[in-house]
């Protein structure tokens, strides 16, 4: 598979910039991070563009639907945290999704706290996830096809090491 991506500065260009600033550093770290960011952006753009085209679902909506599919009924504050957005953003997302002609989610009051709302997938949401998930997994896996099993495990290990820093 070939994908369009932006052109990154070469190591030589990075070295020239650092040399002109009179700081002696190894530009491989900057090169690494630029490549990680570009790769992540490229993967996300391709995967979520396809989801939007095929299912009219944004990255945020898909993350919300996947969380509910895997974990079940969740209060809005926890859902915001798990999806990685603010409470205000999740509130707007939920309201918009509930207002859709065929809502993908349902909302109910929490038994513990009448102010808290619990969100769950509707039947339409379950159908969408079950239909979209196999294609989504294939699209994600397609990016890793250029690596053999050993390379994949090595890269996973290195990425986890970076995340622990």
SSE blueprint:
Elements: H1 11-20, H2 28-55, H3 59-71, E1 74-75, H4 76-83, H5 87-98, E2 105-109, E3 117-121, H6 123-144, H7 149-164
Antiparallel strand pairs: 1-3, 2-3
Helix pairs in contact: 2-6, 3-4, 4-5
Please, could you describe this protein's structure?
This is Transcriptional regulator. It holds the Pfam family MarR. GO terms for molecular function: DNA-binding transcription factor activity. Strand 2 and strand 3 form a beta hairpin. With 165 residues, the protein is mainly α. The chain has 2 domains: 55 residues, no CATH class; 84 residues, Orthogonal Bundle (Arc Repressor Mutant, subunit A), CATH 1.10.10.10. The mean pLDDT is 87. 66% of the residues lie in helices and 7% in strands.
CATH architecture annotation of the largest domain: Orthogonal Bundle
* Number of beta-strand segments: 3
Our Rg estimate from Cα atoms comes to: 21 Å
Characterize the overall form.
elongated
Give the SSE order as H and E letters: HHHEHHEEHH
Low-confidence stretches: none
> Helical region count?
7
Helix content: 55-70%
Give the CATH superfamily of the largest domain: Winged helix-like DNA-binding domain superfamily/Winged helix DNA-binding domain
Count up the domains: 2
Q: How much of the sequence is in beta strands? A: 5-15%
**What is the highest CATH level, the class of the largest domain?**
Mainly Alpha
CATH topology name of the largest domain: Arc Repressor Mutant, subunit A
| Distance, first to last CA | 32 Å
Largest sheet properties: 3 strands, antiparallel
| Helix-strand makeup class | mainly alpha
Mean pLDDT across all residues, rounded? 87
GO biological process, one term: response to stress
Domain HTH marR-type: 29-164
Protein name: Transcriptional regulator
GO molecular function, one term: DNA-binding transcription factor activity
